[in-house]
Write a structure and sequence with these properties.
The structure is a homodimer.
Chain A (H helix, E strand, L loop, with lengths): L1 E8 L17 H13 L5 E3 L8 E10 L6 H11 L4 E8 L10 E11 L13 E2 L6 H11 L1 E4 L14 E12 L2 E8 L6 H13 L7 H8 L14 E8 L6
Parallel strand pairs in A: 3-10, 5-6
Antiparallel strand pairs in A: 1-3, 1-4, 2-3, 5-9, 5-10, 7-8, 8-9
Helix pairs in contact in A: 1-2, 3-4, 3-5
Chain lengths: 250, 250
């Protein structure tokens, strides 16, 4: 049977989503170890995408195949019973035989949270990046509009060599100012390596007055990483949700 | 000079507010050590009240006397520079000579947060108590009304011997249902030892159907701890704010 599950995790103490060699301090590693123990046979887990070390997920989607007599609800309960307190499973359901969490994802939303206040955050310190200087949110919104659309985003990617297309469609960049929090949501069909954190760093530099909103188009067209802003730290970033074509939901 | 300051802290890794013997793992201990170092002479800090081990504060108020050439803003910046990431100072101001954070407090608000959902909280796990079974919030609200007023609250106190009055005025118990969170705010002129956590435990038992709202009056009148509900764990509790008479604010 093929399954789809939705996970949440606090990425603070992990080396990211993807299994890396022998070090098992990854979310994928934790999940695969657990499902392998449950099924009594090796289970491979596919995530909708990798999240970097320190990045969180409120709605990471995974798919995996395994043979078990348990119902999806039982699998979910089993996983939550043994997972550490910083990872949980929101739901498990049977999926169409060809469903694959990464290959079939059509839309993802990431949220970058900034604590913009003179005093650092205490309760949200693991989920927000602190910026003391007041940011010009209106200027950031004007810049964000220019970053949307279908473009080659390689200027906003940390990789230096590209084997695959670096063209992506960013449908929306929404910036909310909620008290001391500035919350930037990015929705698109996919994001390059470090892309959300570099887009955010560039928007922050606009908010600081160091760049103008209209510079965004020039940066995009330059296709040169050196022209974009800084890479923001991972703790402010959360993978919010992943969407699939309706006919693959089940 | 006499000062008033407002603090926030994540109480997770502390043994509570109050200095206890040699063990310095208390919030008061951290603050006194820091101010003593800053002033070059012993500084004694008075909090508006003790918070227990594991309890948080979003607006703990303190007062302290010290001689320094620094402005209140400089004291605030100095403290935030050296405090650990789970404690911060929101503000420091000069206070009236007779201002005392505990003796002059006229109103306090505590918030108890419950995560009421089938799956445990990941991001809010250190600030909420998880209750899986759906609670009847309407019944809890009816019970909460009966707990307000001016009463002898010793049935809701963990102490067994009382030297001082156990009469308090609870002005309001407000229960909000915000998605998966049930947020109970208590406002009153003061609270006995463990009182907010026992009131919450009793309300939770009403929400579970194990007690009726109208039992609250009987419990209050019995003045017997054995008749009230369980003591809730500390991590769900936050001291939200402390109010003073206007003429003592400065």
């Amino acid at each position: 049977m093929n399954y789809k599950a939705i996970l949440q995790y606090d990425g603070t103490r992990y080396r990211g989503w993807q299994v890396q060699g022998n070090t098992d301090n990854t979310i994928q590693g934790k999940i695969e170890t657990l499902l392998t123990r449950m099924a009594g046979e090796p289970v491979e887990v596919n995530g909708s995408g990798r999240t970097d070390a320190g990045v969180h997920a409120a709605g990471q989607v995974i798919s995996f195949r395994c043979q078990t007599d348990r119902t999806p609800e039982d699998i979910c309960a089993y996983m939550n019973q043994y997972l550490p307190e910083d990872i949980c499973v929101l739901s498990v359901e049977e999926a169409a035989p060809r469903f694959h969490a990464r290959l079939n994802a059509v839309r993802k939303t990431y949220v970058y949270r900034i604590w913009n206040a003179p005093v650092r955050p205490v309760f949200e310190r693991k989920y927000m990046t602190w910026i003391e200087q007041p940011l010009d949110v209106d200027a950031m919104r004007r810049a964000a509009e220019l970053l949307c659309g279908t473009h080659d985003y390689r200027a906003f990617c940390s990789l230096k060599k590209f084997k695959k297309s670096t063209v992506r469609t960013v449908e929306e960049v929404n910036i909310e100012h909620l008290g001391k929090e500035i919350r930037i949501s990015y929705t698109g069909d996919g994001f390059l390596y470090h892309m959300v954190r570099i887009l955010t760093g560039t928007l922050v530099e606009v908010g600081e007055g160091a760049r103008k909103p209209e510079d965004m188009s020039t940066i995009l067209m330059s296709m040169d990483r050196a022209n974009a802003g800084k890479l923001m730290p991972p703790e402010g970033l959360t993978l919010e949700c992943v969407e699939y074509e309706d006919n693959l939901k089940k």
